[in-house]
Design goal:
Blueprint: E1 2-3, H1 17-26, E2 31-37, H2 43-48, E3 55-65, E4 71-77, H3 84-95, H4 97-110, H5 117-123, H6 132-141, H7 148-153, H8 171-180, E5 184-188, H9 204-210, E6 214-218, H10 224-237, E7 240-243, H11 263-271
Pfam families: PHP
Domain Polymerase/histidinol phosphatase N-terminal: 2-66
InterPro entries: PHP_dom, PHP_domain, Pol/His_phosphatase_N, Pol/histidinol_Pase-like
Length: 281
């Protein structure tokens, strides 16, 4: 089983990289990608925990904004983590999350929802990439909501009055940098409408021109009709089709390996990187 999209405590997951690898072994996965938000900090621990027949794909989920303000997530896999331009892009995107969080907290406070940056820091694992899930955890701790899932369906949804976008590369810039760093680019859950505004089908042409390699089709947040549409787009544009869990531990309902990538699609995707960077014993 091949799962190409997971998160750890280095971003907004609830399991350490070591715990994630242990869980992957328990679930008999053959390949797992570690793709924390705008961060590669979990790579070393995940690699050190590797054993058995499991293979690790090192990557990151990069936060992007289209020119008209639509939030897009781009999975960068198998890129060179020492590439200075890639590191700079990840650092800049991650650093902008702090002023963004301050603005969102201020909006919530104005509406009478008393939460502070201190509350958010109290629930965020040390060193984790700051994000809305940590704000959701703070709201849960203060009993304003019951769960992260409730937060993302309401208060912290992309269309909410409390949502604040942040400085981020366009999807095209992110794709170009992933490819320049030797990796492959797969757009994550592009039709996940319950998160807010989504990409239009016509957007994929510019992503293809930028070097897009694949589309995450099989994902919990895609309906059967959305999956069919995305599969047709992938076939038309000759893009790789992936399936992933987007696992966050107990932070989301998503189960490890609940969606997976066909081995033939994965073989094709891996061959598109400029080097064989899959980590295995």
């Amino acid at each position: 089983m091949i799962d190409l999209h997971t998160h750890t405590t280095c971003s907004d997951g609830t399991e350490t990289p070591r715990q994630l690898i242990n869980n992957a072994l328990i679930h008999d996965l053959s390949v797992i990608a570690v793709t924390d938000h705008d961060s590669i900090d979990g790579w070393e621990e995940a690699t050190s925990a590797l054993r058995g027949d499991l293979s690790i794909v090192l990557g990151a989920e990069i936060s992007c904004l289209t020119s008209d303000g639509v939030s897009v997530h781009m999975l960068g896999l198998l890129f060179d983590g020492t590439d200075p331009n890639m590191k700079r892009m990840l650092d800049q995107t991650r650093d902008d999350r702090i002023p963004r969080m301050v603005k969102m907290i201020a909006l919530l406070n104005e509406a009478g929802i008393e939460v502070s940056m201190e509350d958010v820091e109290a629930v965020k694992p040390s060193g984790a990439t700051l994000g809305r899930p940590h704000l959701a955890d703070a709201l849960v701790a203060k009993k304003f909501i019951a769960s992260r899932d409730e937060a993302f369906k309401g208060l912290l949804n992309n269309d909410s009055q409390f949502y604040v976008s942040h400085m981020a590369p366009t999807p095209e810039v992110a794709i170009a940098q992933i490819r320049a760093s030797g990796g492959v680019a797969v757009i994550a859950h592009p039709f996940a409408s319950h998160r807010g505004e989504v990409l239009h089908s016509s957007s994929f042409q510019s992503l293809l021109q930028a070097g897009l390699n694949g589309i995450e089709v099989d994902h919990r947040d895609h309906s059967s009709s959305e999956r069919a549409t995305l599969r047709a787009i992938a076939e038309e544009l000759n893009l790789v089709v992936t399936g992933s869990s987007d696992y966050h531990g107990t932070g989301k309902l998503n189960l490890l390996g609940e969606n997976s990538t066909d081995p033939r699609q994965w073989e094709r995707l891996e061959s598109m990187a400029n080097e064989r960077r899959v980590v295995k014993l």
